[in-house]
Amino acid sequence: MPAVLDANAITHGIQLAVAPVFLLTAVTGMIAAVAGRLARIIDRARIVEDQARASTDPELLARSYAELATLRTRGRMTNVCIGLLTLCAFLIGLTIILLFLGEIMGLQAVRLAVVGFLAGVLSFLLALVLFLSETVMATRLLDFHLLQQPPR
To answer: What is the pTM of this model?
Structure first.
């Protein structure tokens, strides 16, 4: 039996789904920012690798390997961050679908929508913690390089 679509139910379903859409917009912005950071990490790693290949200085090689290890850790953190943000976007999208279909078709999916939304928010918060950790790590690396410079 086909479902009867009521204009009021559709309007209310859209209203319910709008709030999670704002979070979805924030998530896409975060993905873009984190992907930019990942690209910079990869670019820096390529530069350090090229310098290490061209050098025979043991001190420079040791610093290069240490920096590459830090860059590898930062890259992994960034990848996990992107994964969490993607999971968040998926869960928020699923929440939007459940809210909309629940309103339109009378499905009892509210609990599932709440669980999906909360899981999405938790993913977003974990991604923010990783993002902060990675930026702190990048700043420490910068401070490390400043300490290595001889005084003028």
So the answer is: 0.79
